[in-house]
Amino acid sequence: MARYRRLLVKGMERRKFSAIKKSSLWLAEDHLLYLTQYGFIVSFTENSQRYFFEDIENIVIESKPLHARKSIMWFCFGAINCFVMAVYYAVMGWSMPVMSCLGFLAFLSVFAGKMSMRRRGEGCRFWITTCGVREVLDPVTCLKAADGVLKVLLPLIEKKQGKLESHVIAEQQARILREKRDGAGTPTVASPPGAGA
Amino acid sequence: MEDRLICCVKCEVDLDPQAIDSHEFRICPACGVKARTILFPAFYRAVPDVTPGARVEDPEEAVCFHHPRRKATHVCDDCGVFVCETCAIPVDGKYTCPDCFDKELKAGTTEDYRHKHILYDGIALGLAVLPLLPPFVLFGSYYLTIATAPAAIMVSLLYWRKTDSVVPRSKVRYVWALFISIAALIAWLSVIGFLFDKILNKVRL
After folding, report:
1. Whole-model pTM?
2. Which of A93, B53, B105, B140 has the most CB atoms within 10 Å of its CB?
3. Closest approach of B146 to chain A, Cα-based (Å)
4. Is A169–B2 a contact, with Cβ atoms under 8 angstroms apart?
5. How far apart are CA A124 and CA A121, in angstroms?
């Protein structure tokens, strides 16, 4: 079996955590492992997906507004927590100080969410595509982390596949688009862009 | 080599060539998604032709075990059945049929091809800890520990040597599961002992 080391870069979450799903990234000699663990608070099963460096076709970093989803999630968590506790203690007949304490805790969790949002900067989605699969890597949630992951992955992928020059890709893509627009049917296979080492 | 176009991750509209492999984010004209694309040579690599095996023309020819109309091209190295191009799965330098591949996956001999694993240490820790978590304790879940604590101890001891994860994983979860379960069992024994003592005292009086 391959030996793995955890892929951790600045700004990246050690593992993308939710109550039922956790995901993390690991590096082996020739592939990237995307590990997803399922359970409830504690993980019971894990699924792994391997992205071999020689098979990765493209990486897309999609910019997203400032962790809006996360902030909403924190708010919902706080609100639900507050509501459930309020109902429970109302039924049990407990006094106001307990409820105000719980309310404070709920809003504290919202505040913590907003603070984490500010600290991590602009959010993103990190898409990785191989021959048959296109997947979002959950642990990469902000641009700072995406840049860090790219710094680690690019040399490894380029070592296996070589490098594509930007202007060659642009020319190639423009030609295919032109042929498509002209309605030439199936585009003719052109000379390969500077692929391969 | 293949002629392919890069498209938007959201709406799948063909992207402007200038937007490819740039270090800046570009906005998709159709859906407004802001994205940066990094292409690699594999993108232009020709996809292998996966047409099913050739049809049988001569009735004397060997046919695939799973596709009786297809010509057999390989023999399964495990069970010896004839398989066509589609059914032959290359595994570690040999060819296997889908059935043998399935069996090997279940038996865990083709470890590298397995992608689902059961985390026994997580199950043990879950059994020990979940009934003691505050939200559940409010509903009296701690009574469950009388059953879950011995179960957690059993799982920990039975699977102590078996770490099923792909990545390195310590035994710390087993240790915590054992520690918490034993503590819960001691607590239960003391409660039972205390109640038993009380009943005995009442009987004596």
Report:
1. 0.71
2. B53
3. 20
4. no
5. 10
